[in-house]
């Protein structure tokens, strides 16, 4: 039965698009985000996001990072309204802030925008983030940036998407020239020209045309570029993939847009097409089956905890992705893991610059909850019933350290700290199984070590020393009969906190050899 509440939820869900931008540092994510926010009128001054970013770059010193937490949290989620849509952009920090949080944040997105520098093509961090999205099967939209600079040819770039990432593509628009000759894009979907005027005002002119052979295209592009455009588009029409929306939904085909974020060029075409094609908040799997976003009962899960927002109060913010129902300030919900009702009294929502108290929110939205230490990553909140959302994946670390506790008498506090910080997802911990018990910490970003060391000292009073271990890869081992001696040859065999076997390798060669020598074993990049 449809109730007024369900109708309200349906309307709100259909309006929403929640996505993350994935890219390698310097591809232009900050610039693109800023332009998108400008379209939504969420920020008045260009340069706001930029200013925040340059702060963040000033230093990697932990105290500085901590000070900046107050700033960067506002950027963890940015929300704006555009043409009747409510858009939530999830920030996926790069640079020295890159961590497992970055991966986990992707689980809260319903789609991803992959931003690529036209000269550099697919870079390492993009590849890693792409793989996480690809495993979830979410739609991925590609924006090829910096077309105002000399870069690779559009066909080369599409080929690279297929070769490196294994995804086929459908160009939604096509550049007319590039670098200094770049004069616009032809929008294949809306059959129109978007013209790049360059100059100080960076004006954009949109003209409807009858097709790419329209005389207006020739007039604007000139004989040479016109011929090139026609040849390219003919080839695409004949040999390219069709725009199969089902494949887009399953993440098997990526719609590609060419543009230049700094010049605000191609951004609007991108936004309009993206909002048309990107999915609204999707159903989620849980212990009681699939949870539809249209359900009346409120549910959500914590995907990120930001600690030390204010060191004096040790406050933390738990970021909750709403999965179903309607959120209302002050409502009581069940914290399923601890089996108690809690009141969501001062939830926050994040606009481009400010944190605001939020009164209502719907599926797809992210709210920040003050956390007096009651939340863990992956915790589910639900109104009525014990809904537990699928556990968040644990990703393979790439940097490793051994730990010594400076004061042996602090062993107990150290253990408590390790337990809590692993639960929060700050680091992963492994234990060696040979001889004496040793701890090895694993992370995907250096910052996680700094955070761990700092919090151990400030919150648990334990001074530690970290010693870099030379491993580069971790793989969870799934084998019916694990014989630890077999895995000692090329790797160190350890156990994770759930007692799963994990093999640590120093290099790719060692990993490959182990895979070859153990054909019955599975070596997983994500914990089973
Ligand atoms: P990020 O967040 O992905 O790390 O990238 P960011 O937006 O900071 O952009 C990285 C650099 O690329 C910046 O230059 C930015 O101005 C430039 N950029 C972004 N989009 C475009 C584009 O469409 N065309 C060109 N030519 N450049 C672009 P910077 O020199 O590092 O910083 P700034 O001095 O310009 O602020």
Automatic annotation (TrEMBL):
<dbReference type="GO" id="GO:0003924">
    <property type="term" value="F:GTPase activity"/>
</dbReference>
<keyword id="KW-0648">Protein biosynthesis</keyword>
<dbReference type="InterPro" id="IPR031157">
    <property type="entry name" value="G_TR_CS"/>
</dbReference>
<keyword id="KW-0963">Cytoplasm</keyword>
<dbReference type="InterPro" id="IPR027417">
    <property type="entry name" value="P-loop_NTPase"/>
</dbReference>
<keyword id="KW-0342">GTP-binding</keyword>
<comment type="similarity">
    <text>Belongs to the TRAFAC class translation factor GTPase superfamily. Classic translation factor GTPase family. PrfC subfamily.</text>
</comment>
<dbReference type="GO" id="GO:0016149">
    <property type="term" value="F:translation release factor activity, codon specific"/>
</dbReference>
<dbReference type="InterPro" id="IPR000795">
    <property type="entry name" value="T_Tr_GTP-bd_dom"/>
</dbReference>
<dbReference type="InterPro" id="IPR053905">
    <property type="entry name" value="EF-G-like_DII"/>
</dbReference>
<dbReference type="GO" id="GO:0006449">
    <property type="term" value="P:regulation of translational termination"/>
</dbReference>
<dbReference type="InterPro" id="IPR035647">
    <property type="entry name" value="EFG_III/V"/>
</dbReference>
<dbReference type="InterPro" id="IPR009000">
    <property type="entry name" value="Transl_B-barrel_sf"/>
</dbReference>
<dbReference type="GO" id="GO:0016150">
    <property type="term" value="F:translation release factor activity, codon nonspecific"/>
</dbReference>
<feature type="binding site">
    <location>
        <begin position="91"/>
        <end position="95"/>
    </location>
    <ligand>
        <name>GTP</name>
    </ligand>
</feature>
<feature type="domain" description="Tr-type G">
    <location>
        <begin position="14"/>
        <end position="284"/>
    </location>
</feature>
<protein>
    <recommendedName>
        <fullName>Peptide chain release factor 3</fullName>
    </recommendedName>
</protein>
<dbReference type="Pfam" id="PF00009">
    <property type="entry name" value="GTP_EFTU"/>
</dbReference>
<dbReference type="Pfam" id="PF16658">
    <property type="entry name" value="RF3_C"/>
</dbReference>
<feature type="binding site">
    <location>
        <begin position="23"/>
        <end position="30"/>
    </location>
    <ligand>
        <name>GTP</name>
    </ligand>
</feature>
<dbReference type="InterPro" id="IPR004548">
    <property type="entry name" value="PrfC"/>
</dbReference>
<dbReference type="GO" id="GO:0005829">
    <property type="term" value="C:cytosol"/>
</dbReference>
<dbReference type="InterPro" id="IPR041732">
    <property type="entry name" value="RF3_GTP-bd"/>
</dbReference>
<dbReference type="InterPro" id="IPR005225">
    <property type="entry name" value="Small_GTP-bd"/>
</dbReference>
<keyword id="KW-0547">Nucleotide-binding</keyword>
<feature type="binding site">
    <location>
        <begin position="145"/>
        <end position="148"/>
    </location>
    <ligand>
        <name>GTP</name>
    </ligand>
</feature>
<dbReference type="GO" id="GO:0005525">
    <property type="term" value="F:GTP binding"/>
</dbReference>
<comment type="function">
    <text>Increases the formation of ribosomal termination complexes and stimulates activities of RF-1 and RF-2. It binds guanine nucleotides and has strong preference for UGA stop codons. It may interact directly with the ribosome. The stimulation of RF-1 and RF-2 is significantly reduced by GTP and GDP, but not by GMP.</text>
</comment>
<dbReference type="Pfam" id="PF22042">
    <property type="entry name" value="EF-G_D2"/>
</dbReference>
<dbReference type="InterPro" id="IPR032090">
    <property type="entry name" value="RF3_C"/>
</dbReference>
<dbReference type="InterPro" id="IPR038467">
    <property type="entry name" value="RF3_dom_3_sf"/>
</dbReference>
